Backbone:
């Protein structure tokens, strides 16, 4: 399998969470961090809950922002 950094502090590994993006060097999925923030947890609470750093949380937000920036939605008639 492969391990590839796809953004700063974010990597994919075919052996970890079926290749979904995780915080590099951990098994913490980006989607979990974003989901926890969306439910109202603070960055500090996410840091404590998952044993990651504030920089990891910010990297997840940055990665999500990059994905949304690239997204294009075309209206349907």
Residues:
């Amino acid at each position: 399998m492969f391990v590839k950094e796809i953004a700063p502090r974010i990597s994919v590994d075919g052996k970890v969470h079926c290749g979904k993006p995780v915080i590099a060097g951990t098994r913490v999925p980006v989607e979990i961090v974003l989901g926890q923030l969306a439910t109202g947890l603070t960055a500090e609470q996410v840091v404590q809950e998952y044993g990651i750093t504030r920089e990891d949380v910010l990297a997840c937000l940055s990665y999500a922002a990059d994905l949304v920036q690239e997204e294009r939605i075309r209206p349907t008639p």
Notes: The domain at 3-70 is CATH 1.10.10.10 (Arc Repressor Mutant, subunit A). The chain has a mean pLDDT of 94. Strands lie at 3-7, 10-13, 22-23.
